[in-house]
Specification:
The chain has 152 residues and is α+β, with helices and mostly antiparallel strands. Helix content is 33%, strand content 38%. A hairpin with a 2-residue loop joins strand 4 (47-51) and strand 5.
């Protein structure tokens, strides 16, 4: 089962604390799938929300398929996500907690099926982002020092 990654949300790990991840299927039309194969998708503004007992992906822009003609698809509209009932119940309970939401991390094809990796997240504060940057810089400096010691 090889993953063919179509798009990723690059700033997700910078802007959010990732609490848990889930894999979900997407309900798509034919031209949407073909546009995904052409990598015409933007995940940056996307998020998931519940409507009743179903979960929908909102604000994901899937561009027009190049050979669609007049019968294309809407670029931005809610797309239903396919998850098991226990996963939906867990996510619904978590989203009810203040400050937690669901965002897409990546969109990919797995065995020919379009899948999205969802993350249950909590937003980072500015001081959290600064702390992460400082930790990354200190780790990089430590690795550099250890490398020079090993080689010298």
């Amino acid at each position: 089962m090889e993953k063919q990654i179509v798009a990723t949300h690059r700033r997700a790990r910078h802007d959010y604390h990732i609490l848990d991840t889930f894999e979900a299927g997407l309900v798509l039309t034919g031209t949407e799938v073909k546009a995904l194969r052409e990598r015409k998708v933007t995940l940056a503004e996307g998020y998931a929300r519940f409507e009743g007992h179903e979960l929908y992906m909102v604000d994901i822009n899937i561009g027009d398929y190049s050979h669609a003609g007049q019968r294309g698809h809407l670029n931005v509209h809610p797309r239903k996500l396919l998850l098991h009932h226990r996963e939906l119940a867990k996510l619904k309970k978590a989203v009810a907690t203040k400050g937690q939401s669901i965002i897409p991390l990546s969109l990919y094809f797995k065995s020919g099926w379009a899948k999205v990796e969802l993350a249950l997240v909590k937003g980072k504060q500015l001081h959290d982002k600064r702390r992460d940057i400082a930790e990354r810089e200190s780790k990089r400096l430590l690795d550099r020092v250890l490398k020079t010691r090993r080689s010298g």
